[in-house]
Amino acid sequence: MKDSSVFPVVGFLLVLLMPSKIKDYQREILPPTIHRLMKGYNKYLRPFFDNGPVTVGMSLDIASIDTISEINMDYTATIFLRQRWTDERLVFEGNKSLSLDGRLVELLWVPDTFIVDSKKSFLHDITVENRLIRIFPNGTVLYALRITTTVACNMDLTKYPMDKQTCTLQLESWGYNINDVMFYWTRGNESVSGLDTLQLAQYTVEDHYTSVSEAVYETGRYPRLVFHFELKRSILYFILETYVPSSLLVVLSWVSFWISLSSVPARICIGVTTVLTMTTLMMGARTSLPNANCFIKAIDVYLGICFSFIFGALIEYAVAHFCTLTHPDAHMLMYGHHLHDMDDEMNGIITTISSHPHRAKRRKEAAVTSPPAPTTTELTVRPPSPSGSEPKSETTPPEPTHWCLTALAMLRKILRVIYCCHVENPHQIDNYSRVTFPLSFVIVNLLYWTYYLYF
């Protein structure tokens, strides 16, 4: 009884310790055609082992591009990778191909293809591993896989969000060099399909093409297939999300130009509120982008322009208010100008009426006091002889020859320029700002959009 109970256990251990026996058992349950093909087949040797390299044709079907991340600079795509090659050891008679279970791929030689810039990849296995093996009578093998991969893509974000990105998907042999394996696209640029019907959230696929190259490493030269595709970002979302609000904040800051200088709380409230709102908008626009100092993006330039105009509107009020402090009666210039003219006219009329009766009397007194006039003329004529040369020298000074005189002359010119910039009426600052701020903002916008859209 003890010996009979030991035999099943020993048999089970022998099965576990002898994988070659399992393979023989798998071959025994294969159909006769496959069994004949597998007889004497060595999957560790590539086809045409002694007769040159084996050529592997590839094609792609892009099922979806799930995410494109500017922060990580990569994209995630689900692809159907199809590979074709000819194995002379698998030639059989007939006119129909054989479709095998994907798990039988372990019995065949397959290319060691890998995705060069892949960060993370996996093969779908629901409900079974998504593999396809098909053998044709002439020995051609079709091997298809369904893969989801995250691939690195170097992006240039200097024109974000008006940028175009060119990403690649590179397929390469890991261990076989160009003397063993050669890769080629089965149908050229048409070897990749699925992009025409692809729908992306922020991008549109503008162009795609394929190329064949070689990867040179220290261990040798390896075949490489490259699929290039160009992505153009949709700017409509950013116009509604960032550009329009920032432009409206700039326009809102101009409202303070139509508010009186005496309304300090109102103008300060508008200025500070717009500055803080613009700062919040700038911080929100940068959260979804990489914090790299090398990237000065187009959206950062526009937000900086808008912030400068909003901050300039706040500084404009500070300057205007400071000018009112240096001119205590400046707030009466705009409203009291007409009253001052009326007062001058009334004073002129009153003085004219009051001085009319005394004109005759003044004429008589002037006639009586006319003889001493020569004495006054003498007083006015005598001094010019000694002192007349002094004012003459002041009005027409000799040309300065010393550097001190040259410095004084330059200082006088600078003071004249500063005096010319002196603001007589602080209210005119708002009048000028109502025109210069909108006009300069329009000009800057024209230059901005022209540069980033056409250059």
UniProtKB/TrEMBL annotation:
Pfam families registered for this protein in UniProt: Neur_chan_LBD (PF02931), Neur_chan_memb (PF02932)
PROSITE patterns: NEUROTR_ION_CHANNEL
Localization per record: Apical cell membrane
Spans annotated as Disordered: 357-399
Domain Neurotransmitter-gated ion-channel transmembrane: 242-331
Main localization, broad class: membrane
The entry's keywords: Cell membrane, Chloride, Chloride channel, Disulfide bond, Glycoprotein, Ion channel, Ion transport, Membrane, Signal, Transmembrane, Transmembrane helix, Transport
Transmembrane regions listed in the UniProt entry: 235-261, 268-289, 301-325, 435-454
All copies of domain Neurotransmitter-gated ion-channel ligand-binding, residue ranges: 34-234
Reaction(s) this enzyme catalyzes, per UniProt: chloride(in) = chloride(out)
Name of this chain's protein: Gamma-aminobutyric acid receptor subunit pi
